[in-house]
Amino acid sequence: MPRPALRSRTLRRVKKRLPGGAFIIHYLKRRPSPARCAVCGKKLHGVPRAKPSIIRRISKSKKAPSRPYGGNLCSSCAREKVKEKVR
Ligand SMILES: [Zn+2]
């Protein structure tokens, strides 16, 4: 049985296969919740779901769609917002 601190579900469990075929459990921090659209609340595509330390390592173009309101609004809400601005 793992030590008391690892028995809680605060940490997520990831099974890792060892070279000999046996499995061991790695205890990792939980990933943050996915980015959501500021208007409708839909999950945003193209926005990585990772810890800030990992986000810092990836390039800017991989962090959010490179369109107006990319990473803040979903595509349909962004389209409406742009139409609103033009009117
Ligand atoms: Zn939306």
Overview of the molecule:
- This protein is of the alpha+beta class and 87 residues long.
- The protein has two domains: 1-30, no CATH class; 32-87, no CATH class.
- 23% of the residues lie in helices and 14% in strands.
- It is built from three helices and two strands; from the N terminus they run αββαα.
- The chain has helices spanning 4-7, 52-55, 75-86; strands spanning 12-17, 23-28.
- The protein has a two-stranded antiparallel sheet with strand order 1-2.
- A hairpin with a 5-residue loop joins strand 1 (12-17) and strand 2.
- The longest helix has 12 residues, at 75-86.
- It is elongated, with a radius of gyration of 19 Å.
- The model has no long low-confidence stretch (mean pLDDT 94).
Unreliable parts: none
Largest sheet strand order: 1-2
Report Rg: 19 Å
> What is the average of the pLDDT values?
94
What is the percent of helical residues?
10-25%
Bound molecules: zinc ion
Tally of discrete structural domains: 2
Structural class: alpha+beta
Shape call: elongated
In DSSP terms (H or I, runs of 4 or more residues), the helix count works out at 3
Sequence of secondary-structure elements: HEEHH
Query: Approximately what portion of the residues adopt beta-strand conformation?
Result: 5-15%
Biggest pleated sheet: 2 strands, antiparallel
The beta-strand count equals 2
Distance between the termini: 64 Å
